[in-house]
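Exercise 7.
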Amino acid sequence: MGLVFISAFRSELAGIRRRAAGVRRAALPEPAAAADQAAPAPPRIPPAPSGSEDGGRRAVAIGAWGADAIPAAAFAGDAQRDPYSAWIGTLGGRRIAMLAGGMGARAAFRAAFRACVAMRGLAGDPPPSPLRDPAAVVSVGFCGGLDETLRRGDVLVPSRIVSPDGSWECSRKLIEAAVAAAETGAASGRKRGFRILSGTLYCSPTIVRTAAEKRALADAAGADAVDMESAGVAAFCARAGIPAAAVKVVLDGAGEELPKGLEELMDSVGRIRPARLAARLLGNPAFIADMIAMRRQAASCAENLGAAVESLSASI
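Solution. The predicted structure, written as tokens, is:
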């Protein structure tokens, strides 16, 4: 069975794409319209199911990818403007789909739905396609460290994802592989100088930029790292009956800060606003150096992420 990888931005998938074979772009047709498609989009992702087995994950054996269990309103409103970029290929002998769907849990929820519904006929394989019934949907990308022992470039494979909307357990097979990698040291990690660790990931509705904000969140949430998309993937998987997983690379450690005002340069799905960026650079030329440094860090972290995903993909 294949794997589906969901990220916020194309740059987060760069390391995985370089390691995959036969990568090609995939066009995403619109999901079939639902009767309540015009309903207002909910402000948050659907909350985690309660009282079910496996840490709140509940299989829904219905229809196409459990679509009947997912509110169509989640795809109304601004869904048409999401910057979907999608590819399919092969990694470690397994078919994979990769989709960058924008920033935030709602965008990730929609991207996971879009990938699992629309990509069913894009794999180029006779039915049953290995992408039709994926072994897992995996949230991949950058995260911020909350645990002070996490260094930039380290890879976190969370055992649990928590957010204001609930809590979800991740694929046990992947967690066990990550723990084994942490104990023995994965060869790819040793070569590039990063570690593969497990822990708890907090999915925040907003950017957590400063060291002070990270300390406060670490105390309040008891998490090791923070991102903005993983809960959206986990929420979709809970309703579609697909195992959820996440592999995140630390872009900024607990004591490091993202460039000030970074969130003001982005639109609702994480795209840079050129006019605002130009105005910021004119008013603060030093911001150029911050952005260049951040881009270099992101490229290096994306390579670590790709190496970790390649070494762990057989365990998902």
